[in-house]
Amino acid sequence: MTVQPFPENWQTALVLVPHPDDPEYGIGAAVAKWTSEGKAVHYALASRGEVGIAGMPPEEAGPLREEEQRRSAAVVGVDDVRFWDFPDSNIRDTPALRATIAEAIVELRPDVVITLYSGPSWSPDAPNQRDHIEFAHAVAGAYDSLDEPPAWLFENGPDPTHCEVVDGFTETAVNSLAAHEVYLSVLDPDTPVIEQARKQVDMVTPAVTGLGERTVGFILKRQR
Questions:
Q1: Which is the most buried residue in 118, 185, 220, 223, by most CB within 10 A?
Q2: Among 129, 49, 136, residue whose Cα is nearest residue 87
Q3: pLDDT of 126-169, one tens digit each?
Q4: Of 46, 48, 70, residue with least CA distance to 59
């Protein structure tokens, strides 16, 4: 399958994810490019990632991770970051979650909705997280429930149908991911945070022949 360029004729995107750091692990460079072009990007997160830092109680980790996410989003030009307080590590495709997602779409009226990969695994040795799978299915269900859905629904994942060329924006993405400083330092205390961030961004921005040296891949799930 030939990978197509990401659509250009849009102005507003809504990025929907379950946890803090989810945008930065995949699409930060694309977001940085879009905001530099004057496009509006909104983030909505199902949880505050409150059980995501080993050894830290949820009542401390949640506010810390929220603050890290807000700083991280600001690096790539996103100032609207919403948190919904669904339970971290127990996010399920429920009517309540679908309704909350649908309400955000109706309120913001984005041209593009972007979420995480819904497949079972990224590769044979890299299974997907259950929160990610359940959340992505909830996004698709919410999209399908709308009388006038956005023009496109994309997932960020393997075997993309479309890609955004992000040459010149990867260093911004590195700095954005590195803003999750406490989270990353606990996740891998032996590797400097900036090195962890650079390795991740390098991995998720491969070259696509004929398009760019650095790209972010997207899977088209719905198109109106």
A1: 118
A2: 49
A3: 899 999 999 999 999 999 999 999 999 999 999 999 999 999 99
A4: 48
